[in-house]
Design brief:
Layout: H1 51-54, E1 56-58, H2 69-86, H3 102-108, H4 116-123, E2 124-129, E3 133-141, E4 143-147, E5 156-159, E6 166-167, E7 183-186, E8 192-193, H5 198-202, E9 212-216, H6 219-228, E10 230-234, E11 240-248, H7 256-262, H8 277-286, H9 288-296, E12 302-306, E13 325-327, E14 338-343, E15 350-356, E16 366-373, H10 375-382, E17 386-395, H11 398-402
Parallel strand pairs: 3-16, 4-10, 13-15
Antiparallel strand pairs: 1-2, 2-17, 3-17, 4-9, 5-9, 6-7, 7-8, 10-11, 11-12, 13-16, 14-15, 14-17
């Protein structure tokens, strides 16, 4: 989805053995703004860190949070769309079981939107994961100039998922920390090797293979659309094609804002640029040669598919909604769960719903807020950097089962 407020994106598709990569509807990765890291306790016996492992405790009573009807109404609508997944899929955070959500979801289906705040106060309790400190960035659905068929001025290919992008067969490559085998390709000798990186793809590694589903006009704008994970291509005749995340080439995401910061290019002094998406784009345009080299340091490359329907689709498999959807790390937040934010940026406070993921959205209480499409969404998302407190809303009775106090 979208041009991340300089900091975001990705969900990597999953496939067994040497099969085709199957997208799960997430984004690539996040990032342009330098990303802070939150220290996390180590997991015992090298188990992956989860919310259940680092610890949760009861937060304040839901009625005391002061939900506004507007934010609660939007969150209720998004929660209802999340329920079919919530009640079926395993929760990687270790906090809930699918059956925990059944009663709240049944109630939500017929709950009057005009009284949405009461719904959350009635059915949920709040949980603080770790110390509760949160860092929130933003993303949006960008619209850039693009066409279905190549024409003068539209020379940046938008590629579909290549058929040779696969996960290694067991034994052909060391497994990743999460147990999966890495993404890559099998070369002409049958040896598993890393997939083509951004530079190789831009230099033509996939040309002539019939993978182009569209063509964009501006390589920098397309780079940020890849960071967002989805977006819209608007042709000169006004027609719009919506594209969504298909897969990523297997390389870790590198935030170019972090690189610029390390080079002293981010700041308020002479020759420095704001650490926002807008500031980084300005640097790339004013220094095209250096800007191209900078973008290539992010070796991660996102492939797309054409999408139709009600808005971009997040990692949960449901449409994401502006000013309502959060991207979160599913190891720490059940995807589909409501989240209450209180931060130093009032516009990002209130009730949200975790419905998406992002490659740079990792760890407890790290969120990426979705702002929709258009100039205002781009402005807010591109400059979003908020700190404060986060509470996860869980079905009543969950904390008692977890032994949290």
């Amino acid at each position: 989805m979208n041009v991340r407020t300089v900091a975001l994106l990705a969900l990597f598709a999953l496939l067994a053995a040497c099969g085709r990569v199957i997208p799960e509807g997430g984004r690539p990765s996040v990032g342009t703004r330098p990303q802070p890291s939150f220290p996390q306790p180590s997991a015992p016996s090298s188990r992956p860190l989860t919310a259940a492992l680092i610890g949760v405790r009861a937060g304040p009573a839901t009625p005391g949070l002061g939900f506004t009807d507007d934010s609660a109404r939007a969150a209720l609508a998004s929660f209802v769309t999340s329920c079919p997944r919530l009640t079926r899929r395993p929760d990687a955070s270790g906090l809930t079981q699918p059956s925990d959500w059944a009663a709240a979801c049944a109630a939500a289906a017929t709950w009057p939107a005009s009284n949405a705040a009461t719904f959350f106060a009635t059915w949920f309790e709040t949980a603080q994961v770790g110390d509760g400190s949160t860092y929130v960035t933003g993303y949006f659905e960008p619209e850039i100039a693009g066409v279905r068929t190549r024409q003068p001025g539209f020379d940046v290919p938008v590629y579909a998922v290549p058929p040779d992008l696969v996960r290694a067969r067991p034994g052909d490559a060391p497994p990743l920390p999460d147990g999966r085998t890495p993404l890559g390709r099998y070369d002409e000798t049958g040896r598993f090797v890393p997939y083509w990186d951004r530079a190789a793809i831009e230099d033509g590694a996939l040309s002539g293979k019939g993978l182009e589903i569209a063509w964009a006009a501006d390589p920098a704008e397309f780079f940020f659309l890849q960071i967002q994970g989805s977006g819209r291509l608007r042709a000169p005749d006004g027609t719009v094609m919506r594209i969504g995340y298909g897969a990523v080439n297997g390389y870790d995401y590198t935030g170019i804002g972090t690189i610029m910061a390390s080079q002293g290019l981010i700041g308020t002094g002479p020759g420095q640029y704001p650490g926002s998406m807008q500031g980084i784009l300005r640097y790339i345009r004013e220094h095209p040669v250096e800007g191209r080299a900078l973008m290539r340091q992010n070796r991660s490359y996102v492939f797309f598919r054409e999408i139709t329907g009600d808005g971009p689709v997040g990692a949960l498999g449901v449409p994401v909604k502006g000013r309502t959807t959060l991207a979160a790390d599913p190891q720490f937040v059940p995807l589909g769960a409501p989240v209450f934010l209180s931060t130093d940026r009032p516009e990002v406070g209130g009730l949200w719903v975790a419905q998406d993921t992002g490659g740079a959205i990792k760890g407890a209480n790290r969120f990426d807020s979705f702002w929709g499409a258009g100039a205002e969404a781009r402005r807010i998302a591109g400059g979003m950097s908020a700190r404060g407190r986060a509470l996860i809303l869980l079905p009543k009775g969950t904390l008692a089962r977890l032994g949290a106090r």
